[in-house]
Amino acid sequence: MKVLFVASEADGLVKSGGLADVARALPVELIKDNVDVKLLIPCYRPLIAQDYPVVADSVSVQVNMWDKFGCRFRKTELDGLTVYLLEHNVYFDREGMYDDGNQAYEDNGLRYALLCQAAFSLCETLDWFPDVFHCNDWQTALLPFYLREHRQFDARFNQAKTVLTIHNGAYQGYVPKHYLTNMGIHERFFTDAVFESYDQINLMKGGLIFSDHVNAVSPGYKDELLADETSHGLGYFFRSIQDKFSGIINGCDYGQWNPEVDHALPANYSAEDLSGKTTCKTALQQEMGLPINPDIPLLGNISRLVDQKGYNLLIPAMRELLSQQDVQIIVLGSGDPVITADLHSLQHQFPDKFAFYKGYSVDLSHRIEAGSDIYLMPSIFEPCGLNQIYSLRYGTLPVIRKTGGLKDTVKSLALNSSNWKTATGFGFEEQTPEACLKAMKQALKVYLEKPERFKHMQLTAMAKDFSWETAVKPYLKLYKELTD
Ligand code: ADP
Ligand code: GLC
């Protein structure tokens, strides 16, 4: 089985969120199952600076009938996985991956059309033709279309199957319609039944139509995509492809996220001996400039600062909690300026209780996972979510909103605590700050008043297994079904 995995980011090289974690860990796991898999991502500015070896120069990538783009492929490796980097400096040597910090690049459609077409050029260059092209999100949603429309008579490709994994259905890749021709999309496809949404090109819609299989990154999110209220406006579309649509939960890369061996931590620990977790807690308090005291409950949160992550619930809930109780909260994140300003203002209001690190730091994210007692993840929607899964392994009990993948991976403690022997976190449903605060207080009550019970829940959480070794199986089955 040969699979070309195409994505817009990959952990260890360039990352903005969980897509990068999956684009690394899933192919690496596939190799262990004897799949011949290669990964293709763009060569963004920080990668150009690395000067990885060039494997092919002056490759001409054709996007439409007329335009050919001179590109280069570089090559590197992640845990034994060969990663090809598509270099085209006009499109990818830029400040950010998708935007300049404020605004999405206007020509994103063309940039990722080039990535999709380059996937075929890469195969030609390597003289290696996959059985499956595995695409991820809107950035690679054009590939199935190009395969069926541009390559339909090319015997090297036309037997190949395509999988499109939806990591986040809220980002659909809207492109102004004047790009149609330049992107090689004939205007007969610019209808509501294919690419058109609100008089613009919607890349994800086209991807849903032309892919041989589509999957959401959890069964819970799959169900939400089928329902009008929670499908980001595409419910009717997802329902129309139901027979080729599934939900497959992500795994966790325990090679990166394991408190027993994590190099970013000041001390390691395991379920057998949690003492290192206390060391991590006090070191984190010190690092973040908070009073050092292992007895004060510490709540953590790491995230892209976007509405999806529920800051409209969390910020008022945190403000209330900080003014009522002796707690500490640490937030690590970057993104939306309004959310950023709100977090700064909380820090000014509660300098001894609340610490906000604005920015992106992988090492600090590991230390927050380890040093916190409770993890906050009150997302409005969450296709899968990885931080709650990391939190389980680090014995940091998550407070979640019961949605999508959060609901699928965390077992919430009942209000009467009847299920405390099997619960792994705390949950709420209603999208209100009050409901969020109530769940945070429920977690704190167990932490402060029933420490034995809290510890039992920590051990239950740490024993949960979301390894890719298991999570890869449905993908293997899917590839087999598609190509048999
Ligand atoms: P999403 O993909 O929607 O952002 P996930 O929970 O699937 O959410 O994955 C987020 C990933 O990005 C996690 O690995 C998380 O630790 C990481 N991350 C998000 N924001 C930051 C940040 N500011 N610094 C470091 N890592 C971050
Ligand atoms: C997306 C989702 C997140 C998911 C990740 C990896 O960014 O927002 O829930 O875990 O992709 O699939």
Walk me through the structure.
This protein is of the alpha/beta class. The chain folds into 2 domains: 2-251 and 468-483, 3-Layer(aba) Sandwich (Rossmann fold), CATH 3.40.50; 275-462, Rossmann fold (3-Layer(aba) Sandwich). Helices cover 37% and strands 20% of the residues. It has 18 helices and 18 strands. The strands form 3 sheets. A 9-stranded mixed β-sheet has the order 3-4-5-2-1-6-7-11-12, with helices on both faces. Helix 9 (275-287) packs across helix 12 (362-371), helix 10 (311-324) packs across helix 15 (433-449) and helix 15 crosses helix 16 (451-463). The termini are close together. The model has no long low-confidence stretch (mean pLDDT 97). Bound molecules: adenosine-5'-diphosphate and alpha-D-glucopyranose. Adenosine-5'-diphosphate binds at residues 17-19, 21, 302-304, 332-334, 360-362, 365, 384-387.
How does the SSE layout of this entry go?
Blueprint: E1 2-6, H1 18-32, E2 36-42, H2 45-48, E3 54-62, E4 68-78, E5 81-87, H3 89-92, H4 108-126, E6 132-136, H5 143-149, E7 161-166, E8 174-175, E9 196-197, E10 200-202, H6 203-210, E11 213-216, H7 219-226, H8 235-240, E12 245-247, H9 275-287, E13 298-305, H10 311-324, E14 328-335, H11 337-349, E15 354-358, H12 362-371, E16 374-377, H13 387-393, E17 397-401, H14 404-409, E18 426-428, H15 433-449, H16 451-463, H17 468-471, H18 473-483
Parallel strand pairs: 1-2, 1-6, 2-5, 6-7, 7-11, 11-12, 13-14, 13-16, 14-15, 16-17, 17-18
Antiparallel strand pairs: 3-4, 4-5, 8-10, 9-10
Helix pairs in contact: 5-6, 9-12, 10-15, 15-16
This protein binds adenosine-5'-diphosphate (ADP) and alpha-D-glucopyranose.
Adenosine-5'-diphosphate binds next to α1, β13, β14 and α12.
